[in-house]
Amino acid sequence: MEPLQKEKYYTYSDYVKWDDETRCELIGGEVYMMSPAPTRFHQKIIGKLFWQLENHLQGKPCEVYLSPFDVRLNAAEEDDTVVQPDLLIICDKSKLTDAGCDGAPDMVVEILSPSTAHKDRLLKFRSYQKYGVREYWIIDPVSTTLQACILTNGKYETNIYDANETAPVFILDGCGVDLKKVFDE
After folding, report:
1. Which range marks the domain in which residue 62 is found?
2. Does pTM top 0.85 for this prediction?
């Protein structure tokens, strides 16, 4: 594989040619290398969150997935944005392929780390909003808070929840996530 060039514009057709050792995301045609394995606490948080959501979704049409899972946000257009959210929910099964998801998932969750915080809070925020991700959660393991961004008239409205609260999942009727269980060490 040729070395990735910082100034080159890439698309999904380039992305699929890269070997599995090159973990990266494309946002607007620009390559963002993925960090090494997440921390133990990051993995614990995502596991507990997945467990609560998976239990709620039993017998329902939506499905929850964990990273690595390719999401081609603008597959029908430029196809220059491929992300791997920490967790996602897809309710429209026609978007699912063997390679991942073509189009915006209904919900995306990113867990911040020092190396991803800027990308998650700014670049991915803008991309998820632009391509219609209905609900975007940003989890901060340091402050043990959840920033829930709900898409309303094309813009995100934000609610903040702390570790002692239950955060409603707006895209899923009757679903709430007990953050005390998510952040419990």
Report:
1. 38-73+83-183
2. yes
